Structure formats: structure tokens, C-alpha cells
Amino acid sequence: MYKFSPKLKMASIVAMVVGLIMFSIGFGINASRGEDYVLKQASHTEMTHQENQVQHESIVHNTHHDAEHTEHLLHQYHNRPWTAFFMAAFLFTGVAAVSMFFLAIQHVSQSGWSVVVTRIMEGMTAFIPIGSVFILIVLIASALHFNHMYHWMDTELIDFNSDKFDHFMRTKSGWLNVPFWLTRSVIYLAGWTFFAWMLRKKSKRLDETGQVKDYWTLYKWGVFTIIFFALTSMSSGWDWIMSIDPHWYSTLFGWYVMTSYLVTAVAIMIILAVYLKKKGYLPKFNDNHLHDLTKYLFGFSLLWGYLWLCQFELIWYANIPEESVYFQQREAQYNWTYYTMLIPNVVLPFVALISSSIKRNYNFVFAIAVIVIIGHWIDIFNQMMPGTVGAQWSFGLVEFGSLLLVGGAFMFVVLRQLSKMNLEPKGNPLFHESEVYEYPF
User: What are 221-256's pLDDT values in tens digits?
Assistant: First the structure.
């Protein structure tokens, strides 16, 4: 039985407290700054990020003479703390949700090798209800106009009599309207929480009885979980991320988003498994299990890179010119983060993990997993910040504070959940197969 280390418990609490303090200070500084600061910063930022001359001259002109544009810049600047918090909440909640999905796949496919590590996956799913609260705070605040992360929530955009009327937004209003949007969001989060709870409950029941009927009940709930998550992971990506930039769309963006936190989830599974193994709480976990988990980290990293490239190519082979807006903004304003993230997310995992033998090196794989997590946090940054903050971005108190706050909460909840569980699911009929599993190479 795993005992939650007092040092780790204190570390997670300290991370939350420090993160909250950093975020609060950053939020206060952000809220205290008004038009003068934003106008000065906007002019400097446009020059720094080297946008094309025509766009730059237009922005500078509007910055000084157009009150509407000034208000837009102020909204963007004040969006930054909300976006930073949403980044962290979305990443760790997505990791917990996709862990539930990955766990369900193990049960439905009747995988033998993974039974030894299924408790880790179950532990990670315990964060879903906490993460759901974090996400709902941001979504409800957006609906109440405490922030302006979602441009389409401006009702004047669909008012025929308004100067702001946007025909494109009008055509999307059947899907992008606040009541339906919030309702869908609650369904996603409540559904993930319910299915994660059911999988843990049925797994615990199987552990207690060891009955075949309980195993097939777990199998059945795994099927339901896969179906629900397959549908909601796609639409939640549309609702929470793609609708930040409502004038563009991508036919594979939902998969791109899901793959990002899928890679992160596998990286965290590796970190937890290696930690528990070194502490003596997971004795059945061996080189063969590490090898298979690292194969998933390697494979999903390449899948993410493939989807990153395919999304760019959709402009031509799917004839979706609207895609170009997405890349133009990131090319102009986020060049430094958008392209450099390919190093920790694709290049490094490919080069470092391509060797079969290196996948069994605990310390090395652990280090690569940490780097991959950081890389995909930057990926979430690149998904959200351009549409909400624009050119007024940086890494500061609110970004790192949010990461520490939500990351610390994730660490506390997951390790606390693991301390309540038997880490060896011996009631599972495939447990012995996992014990003696040996990778054939």
C-alpha cells in the first residue's frame, strides 16, 4: 500500500500556495494597468514581433485614434491571467480525462501487459472533478463577461442592426451561443467525472471479488467510456479552444488537441511509475512495462507532430483557406514559441527514444518525460494565447503561478488517491500475465 510521502505532500501544498501567491500578484498587476500602459505596450510589441509594415501602420494608427481598437487591446491584455489559468486547468484536466480513456482501452482490448500500471491511470482520473471546477470557473466567468476570451459572445455580432454585425458569426450562432455552450461543457465534465468514478468503482469491486462477471462489467463500462470520450474530446476541443478564434476552423483540430494531452498523460504515467518503482511500492513494474509505456510516448509524440504538419497542409489538400489565419498570427507574433516547441515535442523524443534499449533506462526516460510535459504546456500556450491575448504575451507570474497552482493540486490529488488504493490489482484475471510479461525483442 502506497503511503503519501510527507515531503511530497508538503511539496504539493507549497507549490499550490506559491502558485496562488504568484498568480494573485500577477492578476493584481494586470488589473491595475489601463489604456496608457496597453497603448505603449502594443506599439512596442508590434515592432518587436516584426509584423508586416501595412498591418503595423494600421495598428499604430488605430492605437492612437480609434477608441474601439484601444478597448480591444485592453480586453486582450486583461485576458492574460484568465488564459494562463485556463491553460493549466485545461492541460491537467485533459490529462486526467485522457488517462480515463487510455485506461478504458486497456480494459476493452484486454491488454495483459498494462495491468500492473492501471492503478496509476485510475489515480490520475481522480483529478477530473477538481479540474472541472477550475475549467468551469473560467467558462462561467467568460459567459458573465468577466473576461473577453471568447469573441463570439459579443451579442452585437449577430444583431442585424448593429455596426458590428458579422454574418459568419451569425451562421455559427446555432452552435456558439452561451446557454448551449455552457450546457455542453457541463455535460463533458460531468460525464468524464462519472465514467472515471465508475471505472474506479468497478475495478475496486473486481479486486475484492475476482469474479469473471465483475471483469465483464468493467469491460462493459470501458466500452461506454470510450464512446463517450471519443465524442466529447472532439467537441470540447472545438468549444474551448477552436472557438477562441471563431473565424477559422480545422477538420482535425480536435484530434490535435487530444493528442497533446495524451502525450502528456503518458509522460506523467512514466514519471509516477518510475517514482513508485524506486520507492518499492510497484515491485511488479519492470523494464518491459517501462519499454511499452515509452513506446507510447515515442509513438504519440510522432502522431502529434504528424497532426501539427497535417493541420498546416489542410490549407491546400482540403481546400480550407481559413486555416491560413491560424498560422499567419502565430508566424507574426508567436514565432519564437510556435516553432521551438517542435524540439521538445517531436525532435527530442524521436532522437532520444528511437533506440529500443534506451526505452528501459529509468532515469533517462524520466528526464525525457519531464521535458515532454513542459513542451506540451507550451503547445497549449500556443493554442490559446494568440486568440485571447494577441501580441501582448509573455511568460510571467500568471503563467508560472497557474502552472504551480494547478500542477500542485494535480500532484496532491493523484498521490492521495494512490495512497487509498491497492497498487496491485490482483483481482484482474490478467494480472499474472502482466507479472510475467516480457517484451519479445
Answer: 999 999 999 999 999 999 999 999 888 888 888 889
Give the model confidence (pLDDT) of 117-145 as tens digits: 999 999 999 999 999 999 999 999 999 99
By the 8 A CB rule, do 58 and 97 touch? no
Q: Return all residues near 426 (Cβ < 8 A) that are at least 6 apart.
A: 207, 210
Burial pattern 305-316, b for ≥16 Cβ within 10 A else e, equals: bebbebbeebbe
* d(C-alpha 201, C-alpha 208), whole Å: 11
Cα dist. 281→2, 168, 223, 293 in Å? 6, 56, 30, 18
- Torsion 39-43-46-51 (CA) sign: positive
Are the CB atoms for 98 and 261 separated by under 8 Å? yes
Q: Give the CA dihedral 237, 241, 247, 249, nearest 10 degrees.
A: -30
Q: How far apart are the first and last CA of the chain?
A: 33
Closest CA to 291 of 358, 351, 348: 358
Distances (CA, A) of 166 to 55, 154, 161, 247, 390: 21, 10, 11, 10, 20
CA 69 to chain centre: 31
Helical ranges in 144-252 per DSSP H: 167-172, 178-209, 212-240
pLDDT in tens, 273-311: 999 999 999 999 999 999 999 999 999 999 999 999 988
* DSSP percent split of the chain into helix, strand, coil, nearest 5: 80, 0, 20
The string of DSSP letters for 225-288 reads: HHHHHHHHHHHHHHHHTGGGSTT---TTHHHHHHHHHHHHHHHHHHHHHHHHHHTTS-TT--HH
Quote the cell numbers at residue 80. Answer: 492574460
441 in Cβ contact with 360 (< 8 Å): no
Distance from C-alpha of 314 to C-alpha of 332, rounded to nearest angstrom: 20
Report which residue type is found at 333.
Q
Q: What angle do CA 273, 278, 279 make, to 5 degrees?
A: 100
For 268, list phi and psi in degrees, rounded to 5. Answer: -70, -35
Cα radius of gyration (the chain): 23
* CA gap 274, 30 in Å, rounded: 40
**DSSP letter assigned to residue 245:** S
Pairwise CA distance, residues 13 & 407, whole Å = 10
C-alpha span between 323 and 26 (Å, rounded): 33
Contact 252/307 with Cβ under 8 angstroms? yes
